Amino acid sequence: MSFSKSKSKSKSKSKPKSKSKSSSDEEDLKNWGILISKSRNIEDFLITTNTIKIGRNKSSHFQITKSSKISGTHCIIHRENPETINKNSKQKKVALAFLEDTSTNGTFVNGVLVGKGNIRELNYSDEITFVSAIEPHTKLPPVILYFRYLNYIDKISKNFIKEKFTVVEELGKGEYGTVSLVLDKKDNDLYALKYTNTEKFQKNFKSKKYCIQRSFNEVNSLIKFEHDNIIKLYEVFMVEEKYLYLKLEYVKGGNLLERIKSKRCYPEDEAKIVIKQILDVLLYMHEKGFVHRDIKPENVLMVSSSDTDIKLTDFGFSRAFSKKEPMYTKLGTENYVAPEIITERGYTNACDLWSTGVVLFEMLLGYLPFSKEIRTDMSVWKQIILCDLEFTSIDNNKISPQAKDLIQKLIEKNPLKRLTAKQALNHPWITEKK
Ligand SMILES: Nc1ncnc2c1ncn2[C@@H]1O[C@H](COP(=O)(O)OP(=O)(O)OP(=O)(O)O)[C@@H](O)[C@H]1O
Ligand SMILES: [Mg+2]
């Protein structure tokens, strides 16, 4: 059970802590799990050894001192030897991790107390809470960690997909696969099953290794995120080393592009709520050292019939990045792509802010700033490189000066002058109450 790991070696500040000192590719393979912290003041922890102790003690592998209720050794995570399990079991899916509760105050998994001396299986994305409620005397919130497997995937047969899911309808179709609404027969719940044919990648890209790696970009990014506005990844299946299936959280409101089309354009107070959520996600991702690279309305999903509750999806172009090492791969979606990606002189995570500016423009004015329709005499890429952002007199009547100011500071040619996610979140158009 392993999948090709991402080639990208993030050197960002927010790289998770680990006892392992080496950062070589081989050492990376030893990272079999990760504990993602909900709180920003506790860093994520990469699990490399078969047993890790978590608690206040200095000798803990993962030392947490943020709460007085945390025991010296609060809990232990054990890894079963996969070889032993495979020999003894013919099961399709095996749990490789177990949590042992060693604390009097208790460790909770998905809100359920494990209990001192008890051991329970840990599944992908389980939530581990160290103190059940806010500590009354200190008003400290509980310490919450999310467990994820790394280098982990279920290899299954094609029939197994049919046995496991009932396809309800197609939700979307891309160049390399489809997204379907499915019913999981096990829990009778609805999910979005995203299917990618990695062989189709191979027709468009050079090496097989690169194609496989590209197909896993989405998994490698999504498994490291826990955010209310990012679509959740539940399971990953690989069939015949070719077909990749991601079982994702399903949201029923369609995508933002459909919503813009049906509304013609968004009122500013509603657009503000949507853009703020996108910026929140970008701040979260960028701080973790990840870039999205395909921000556009089709990739912003609507949670319900509400025009403002969103979740970001399609992390197929996402990857870890380092501010010191610019990216060069030319990708994205024509109308939303930043000029520095087109000119191929190296780009950073600032490209996501450009695309967010384009989305904001489109939401408020109902058309794209750079498109074939706007200027028939010039290619879209040329328009983007020129960055000649024009607001007609009708536009100026339609939007407030504050909104226009934010758009201009996001659709800014120079990525060094462009607002960051944090700066954009502090822009008066976003922060002002009315
Ligand atoms: N989790 C989901 N819940 C509901 N609808 C979804 C979900 N994921 C995707 N969709 C629908 O399917 C469409 C395509 O999904 P997605 O953007 O993930 O794939 P894609 O565009 O085919 O990928 P790519 O752009 O890499 O080719 C979305 O625009 C949306 O309408
Ligand atoms: Mg998409």
Q: Kindly report how far apart the N and C termini lie.
A: 52 Å
DSSP helix fraction: 25-40%
Total number of helical segments? 14
The largest sheet is:
6 strands, antiparallel
Structural class: alpha+beta
Query: What Rg, in angstroms, do the CA atoms define?
Result: 23 Å
Strands of the biggest beta sheet: in what spatial order? Answer: 2-1-11-10-7-8
Shape: globular
**Assembly level:** single chain
Low-confidence stretches: 1-15, 17-29, 81-95
Bound chemical compounds: adenosine-5'-triphosphate, magnesium ion
The whole-number mean of residue pLDDT values reads 84
Q: What fraction of the residues are assigned to beta strands by DSSP?
A: 15-25%
Count of extended strands:
21
Written account of the structure:
Residues 52-114 form the FHA domain. Residues 165-430 form the Protein kinase domain. This is Serine/threonine-protein kinase fhke-related. ATP binds at residues 194, 298-299, 314. With 434 residues, the chain is an alpha+beta fold. The protein has helices spanning 25-29, 82-88, 158-164, 198-204, 208-222, 256-263, 268-287, 339-342, 350-365, 380-386, 393-398, 401-410, 421-425, 428-431; strands spanning 33-37, 45-47, 51-55, 62-63, 75-79, 97-101, 108-109, 112-113, 119-122, 127-129, 144-149, 154-156, 165-173, 177-184, 189-197, 233-239, 243-249, 290-291, 300-302, 310-312, 319-320. The chain has a six-stranded antiparallel β-sheet with strand order 2-1-11-10-7-8, with no helix packed on it. A six-stranded mixed β-sheet has the order 12-16-17-15-14-13, sandwiched between helices. Strand 13 (165-173) and strand 14 form a beta hairpin. Helix 4 (198-204) packs across helix 5 (208-222). The longest helix has 20 residues, at 268-287. Residues 1-15, 17-29 and 81-95 have low confidence and may be disordered. The structure holds adenosine-5'-triphosphate and magnesium ion. The site of adenosine-5'-triphosphate has 21 residues, from strand 13, strand 15 and strand 17.
